[in-house]
Amino acid sequence: MEEVFDAAIIGMGPGGEVVADRLLTAGKKIVVFESELIGGECAYWACIPSKTILRGPEVNIEADGAAGASSSTLDWEKARDYRDYMARHLDDSAQAEGYARRGATVVRGKASISGPGHVVANGEQYLAHHIIIATGTSPSVPDFPGIGDITAWTNREVYTLDTLPQSVAIVGGSAVALETAFFLSGFGVEVTVLNRSARLLGREEPEVSALAEGYLRERGVKVMANSSVAVGRRGDGGSSILALREGGEVVADAVIFATGRTPRTEGLDVARAGATLDGRGNVRVDEHCWAAEGLWAIGDVTGIMPFTHVAKYQGRIVADCILGRDRNASYDGIPRVVFAAPEIAAVGLTREQAEGRGIDAVSIQVNLPEAIARPWTYEQDPHGDLGILVDRHRRVLVGAWAIAPQASEWIHQASMAIRGETPLQVLRDAVPQFPSYSEAYLVALDRLGAAEGI
Length: 454
Prior knowledge:
The protein is of the alpha/beta class. Helix content is 32%, strand content 25%. It has 16 helices and 23 strands. Strands 1, 2, 3, 4, 5, 6, 17 and 18 form an eight-stranded mixed sheet that branches. The protein has a five-stranded parallel sheet with strand order 8-15-9-10-11. β4 (111-115) and β5 form a beta hairpin. The chain is globular, with a radius of gyration of 24 Å. The protein starts with a strand and ends with a helix. The mean pLDDT is 97.
């Protein structure tokens, strides 16, 4: 009799690993498929190495601002070696062995779906009651004349660099573009950011875009808005030259593309199991991450808020559903963070999005050094801003953003308020630690109440 698994997981990034861990803990029999490395993009070429390598420049900036401290010369070799340690030296053998010890069948190779409950890999067929697609995305690089003649990198080349270039051009205005710019400029690389839109982080509030650009420029980064590449060519000495549609040229040692990502669904044949793809190639799922009978999809491949923390959340949703605990996914109040210096964090809706939903929303922005003590105890030349967005009629928080030290941590106060629809009167009754950045929420709420009567 052919072996039947409780679940087959295609793709072992963060989302797939969460499902695998929870099903194994529950005693389920699983088979996992991975064509690259267990841990996925996040562990080896994105979240972990990028945040690890960003820490040095961040500490240098903090030291410059802290009373009695001073910055020191960054040691790229030591930073690079620790990055490689954190990225497991691109070796997932320990992870594979760990899953095997727990009873999982680990299959190396590209998997496809041959029918409901049927997965094929390396010419072998596997049967499972449930199939979970967690294949993630790949970097999307635009095609233009001369793309093959220049030194073109994506996040994979950037976060496995052995030797730093002297100069780079970063194409894009996303979180990836900004983090890469802060990292490289912090280590002394000359950085130019080419953004085809009028502002960076175009999905956030205009105030966030303006502040982010200002901080980049403070770090010596050249930002060129409304700029797009027409032609690339190789220059003298091996440089990469970009001719811009708007006129002019940019010369750099390498060109880094932070221009979006494409779902890895090619060759999966999800239609054979009854699933469909949207116009971008993402797997369509419902509120349970259910794609078809016995078929689920999680993480970036769904096109729903492509963040590692969302993939892990969706993994918990699917594992619970498979184990008989019916659970819906909610995407309200999920934070979005750019790990720059200072950190850029946002959660919930923007004013434009609120208006699009017919919400009568009011907002306020607070300059932190003017409002609270913590910025002054943190640094000598303090900076930072907080913005909140409130539903006037429901009297709840629907959006927030912060650009300040450690914003990635204290944005979660707004996240929980939005997810829990916490009334303003409860938020105003909070007693935040003194001194802390969280005190700014009280200031913002009080000022908004005085101005708008809510």
